[in-house]
Amino acid sequence: MTQSIDTMLARLLGPRGFTTDADTVTPWLTDWRGRYHGAARAMLSPADTSELAETVRLCAAHQIALVPQGGNTGMAAGATPDSKGDAMLLSLRRLDTIDTSRIADGFVECGAGVILERLHTVLADQGARFPLSLGAKGSATIGGLVATNAGGTQVLRHGNMRALVAGIEAVMADGTVLDERAPLKKDNRGYALRDLIVGSEGTLAIVSRVVLRTSPAIIDRATAWVGVASADAAYRLLRALDGQREQLEQFEIIPDLALESVLGHVAGTRAPLAGRHAWHVIVELVRERPDQREPREQLENALAKSIEAGLVENAAIASSGREEAEFWRIRESISETERAHGPALQHDVSVPVADMPRFIAETSARVEDQFPGTTALAFGHLGDGNVHFHVRAPEDAVAERWHDECGEAISDMVYDMVDSFAGSISAEHGIGRAKLRDLSRHASPARLASLTAIKRALDPHNILNPGALIPAEGSNT
Amino acid sequence: MTQSIDTMLARLLGPRGFTTDADTVTPWLTDWRGRYHGAARAMLSPADTSELAETVRLCAAHQIALVPQGGNTGMAAGATPDSKGDAMLLSLRRLDTIDTSRIADGFVECGAGVILERLHTVLADQGARFPLSLGAKGSATIGGLVATNAGGTQVLRHGNMRALVAGIEAVMADGTVLDERAPLKKDNRGYALRDLIVGSEGTLAIVSRVVLRTSPAIIDRATAWVGVASADAAYRLLRALDGQREQLEQFEIIPDLALESVLGHVAGTRAPLAGRHAWHVIVELVRERPDQREPREQLENALAKSIEAGLVENAAIASSGREEAEFWRIRESISETERAHGPALQHDVSVPVADMPRFIAETSARVEDQFPGTTALAFGHLGDGNVHFHVRAPEDAVAERWHDECGEAISDMVYDMVDSFAGSISAEHGIGRAKLRDLSRHASPARLASLTAIKRALDPHNILNPGALIPAEGSNT
Q: Which residues 425-464 of B have a C-beta within 8 angstroms of A?
């Protein structure tokens, strides 16, 4: 039996679609952050939906686990098999077709394996764009972004991946195909299966193709670096821009400590403003249609008013594309800088937007008070109520020992604060395998029971990404 | 046992919350369209979430079915128990609190029993609005709108109910409470339970409270009645308004036949334009913020250009609120006029927006050709790819006999056309009990199997609205 399934899959998928070659497979068995190392019986790479469906059907019949994987850039080890080596690694990377025939209606159809950056390029050639981007865009696939309901800096205006998926095709756990690619604005034929599958991390179905909403290409933009006294002032600036919401593309906050660290760590960076400010904001307004207002003029007016009102201490609008890129380079270097700085704990959390300034202030104070020598640092997507909340170890800490001794206690303190704000312990990174313990501890009994029940219902033999997202009781691995 | 559950519920809920009085209960046992008549063991009306949770817990323990009900204005008999009289009718109407404390952040919290019109009034007093309305607003409750993922004429800009629910509280089938009311823009703690519960028609959980997104009150608006030569011209007019999308609040299409019928049936109505046109459009642009463009000027310019381009035959912009109301009175009288006109079949269907003109033309031609004497009539939400597709009986048809002889065949022809456009046989009305047969016939095996599996997973004893939404195999009634 175990022989025959491998043979059947090898015959079905051919040499490009079935391999056990260690040199080929091994690079895909460690997660993006290098913390999880798995093993696989083989790597399967179906060439189209029909091969994928037959693959799932065969594996279901033999109760062989499948761990789906796109670009393997996830932050929560959701695409790494366990170390037993029983599971098949299921690469979706060959499902890489792009169909732009509906582009005039604002839609593009993509295979799960399409790399985000390639989609950007293809759409740019057609005068359109897909308004979601992230650091790993050169490797991340559309299927992975869908499976993890990815976010990023443009969620503010365009929503996360779930809001951008207009239609979906997915292979269910028994190998049947759910083809709901038609982009219907209204559809009440029972439960929202599309929304359910988006963000389910390959545990309910394997996404094979999606129809995505596109936006018009950007005609021009204006980007400002803004110095403010507090995260609360940053929030009030965001609200002062309510009138510009339809053109407000990005709004990111950066504490002074993060800026200072980037300036010290990344060669060629320089402070955008002359003076010191406790907090910094990058604001971007865009124009997508000729009849929209000129972004630069709007931004100048809004910032002038905010300076007058005492909300903003100082601001600089980028005078060139180069200067814009310099602003964004600082923002995008924070994660790397923090990793280089020394041991730290990262949390990707959200609370209601209006509560975020208070959350940052109170959580930072509590952590630094209870764990002397630590430094809290929150940066990111204020407009989504989502920050990356890092806690740096004391200067003299030894990485591994500090993690072992304080890691859980500090994270639990951060997450307890999140709970007290009715927030989320995973805003955009998902659960995968890395946050299972945190989910078990911080999700409500009603949520945990519902997740487990739905998983069992749609994947009764637990063959789709076992060990990911669903805490142990619901997993048979 | 059967005695004791009634006694326990009566004690728990008190005289306002438990009644078997026929005069009180009977009016709620017939559906809105008067086609389904049910029976109930008692009517339960919990006063708050905790009474509701305990009610569900008790009924779950005794495997007593609960049929949840709001204003009983659904179009698909989703809130009418069957005629056996075993089930409890569960009224959510006493859960009628409104909390406006987050109104400055754009949110309002409502109990499931809040009547839509009351919410409109309360928000208007605060300079805000809830951008969803429908004919039954004086009776329809927020809980019912959430359970059916209601639509209406403002979905174009604001989305349907699922897009407007930012947070939810629901009682699961075992009586545990899922409290996810916090309006989080980003949350990846596993499956999208909120989106799953919205539109589940009370079959997965009982919605007790929701946090809804609000919009700013409208400062001014401009409404035009537009005559065009075809549904395709109407679609091209919609696309010509792409530049006004952020202020385009409503865009409805009306065929000439529907207009003529309304003018003949409803006293005091008059044709908005002097000449005859094959199709009519009502367009509404609004301004919510002082810095947005003046709607009237925008609409005048856009229509002038469209007349010049030969897209629009003629147009009139309402010169007063009275005239605006006259335009909308025509639109809102279509359903009533069609009911009065004679026997007809109604279908609430959607296809991808761009395909709708072709769908209307091809489906009308096919139905009228195959069923001589019938007249097809499509009107409604073109911008959502959603029309109400009516088929009038031949002049000499006898209502009941015609329904019996041709009803299923005509509806199947319409729905087969919907299938061929990859559309939905229920765009905004849901499935309830009235469309179960159609769902069984026209949903894919993967969708049907998933619906049934999810239902069994979250309501294993089938006590939540049994007989609604899930075709027979998944129901034990």
A: 425-431, 439, 443-447, 449-451, 453-454, 456-458
